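Figure 6 in text form: structure in, sequence out.
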């Protein structure tokens, strides 16, 4: 017996936005304190690329 599946698009994942103050503070940790993006991202629980963007 063959199972037929209907191809349905996965519902789009809605991306949340971080509040402006959070983004400014996170960037400040990298720029002002001369810390690496990876270090700050790890501390804040973010993906490195997210913070790097």
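Output sequence:
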């Amino acid at each position: 017996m063959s199972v037929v599946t209907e191809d349905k698009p996965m519902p789009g994942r809605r991306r949340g936005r971080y509040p402006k103050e959070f983004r400014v503070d996170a960037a400040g940790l990298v720029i002002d304190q001369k810390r690496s993006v990876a270090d700050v991202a790890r501390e804040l629980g973010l993906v490195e690329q997210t913070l790097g963007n």
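Caption detail: The mean pLDDT is 85.
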